[in-house]
Amino acid sequence: MLTLALSKGRIFDDTLPLLARAGITVAEDPESTRKLILPTNRADLRVVLVRASDVPTYVRYGGADFGVAGLDVLLEADATLGGDGMYRPVDLGIARCRLSVATPQGFDYAHAVRQGSRLRVATKYVHLAREHFAAKGVHVDLVKLYGSMELAPLIGLADAIVDLVSSGGTLRANGLVEVEPIMDISARLIVNQAAFKTKTAALKPLVDGLREASNNIP
Ligand code: ATP
Ligand code: MG
Questions:
Q1: How far is the centre of ligand 2, averaged over its atoms, from the C-alpha of 111 (Å)?
Q2: How many structural domains compose the chain?
């Protein structure tokens, strides 16, 4: 039996067409079931639904043989889990967005950076944010949040946020502007190393199938 870890929402929705192109259909819709283990059309493959940020943990410790996680989540997990125990064989090219610094419209970020001001930055991505600002030589106090980062500058909790941006609609709706892109993000296929060695015959065709499917995204 092979176990694939996915998170509900964007990752699940964008992975589904890739799975379909590899001949795999998931038997149930995560939005309408409360089940956390979903069978597929293949008796030897099941999907487990976990929190987006938990996908690397499941794969790293073998709770799932493989999974799909955003590069944001993967790099942030590297800081705590370490990069060992997982292969990252395929950039699936789905759930594309970027990690960026955003501030309230009136805030002169470039000026604050030039002045060497100490900035208070709210983010879910404390490790990535720390690396980014350290590389720029900007002093920051990081405030760890688990969601709704856009709120922090509006309430005076922070001068800036580091968050994912795609259309910019959420930032705009909250009077924030993207002032500095940090990196491009897309979702990656990750594979437990031990599982890949012991279950190669079953896993490799799936990894190859998903690579093939992702190379042919219209
Ligand atoms: P959780 O709810 O467990 O805290 P989450 O809210 O980050 O996780 P999603 O919003 O489904 O979960 O995001 C999952 C992944 O999708 C992210 O890690 C990122 O790689 C990608 N993603 C997030 N926001 C966007 C976006 N606006 N556009 C495209 N991809 C995105
Ligand atoms: Mg969420």
A1: 33
A2: 2
State the distance from the centre of ligand 2 to the C-alpha of 137, rounded, in angstroms: 31
What is the sign of the dihedral through the CA atoms of 187, 133, 155 and 107? negative
Output the residue whose Cα is nearest ligand 1's atom 20. Answer: 70
pLDDT of the residue at 173: 97
Q: Give the pLDDT confidence of 30-82 residue by residue, as tens digits.
A: 999 999 999 999 999 999 999 999 999 999 999 999 999 999 999 999 999 88
Respond yes or no on whether ipTM tops 0.90: yes
* Residue closest to 125 by CA, chosen among 106, 109, 145: 145
Whether residues 90 and 193 fall in one domain: yes
Among protein residues, the one whose CA lies closest to atom 23 of ligand 1: 164
Residue 172 and residue 106 share a domain: yes
pLDDT band at 218 (very low <50, low <70, confident <90, very high): low
The response to whether residue 166 sits with its C-beta less than 6 Å from ligand 1 reads yes
| Amino acid occupying residue 86 | M
Residue 36 and residue 141 in one domain: no
Q: Are residues 179 and 137 in the same domain?
A: yes
**Which residues span the domain enclosing 154?**
97-184
Paired with 191 in beta bridges are 66, 87
Does the C-beta of 191 come closer than 6 Å to ligand 1? no
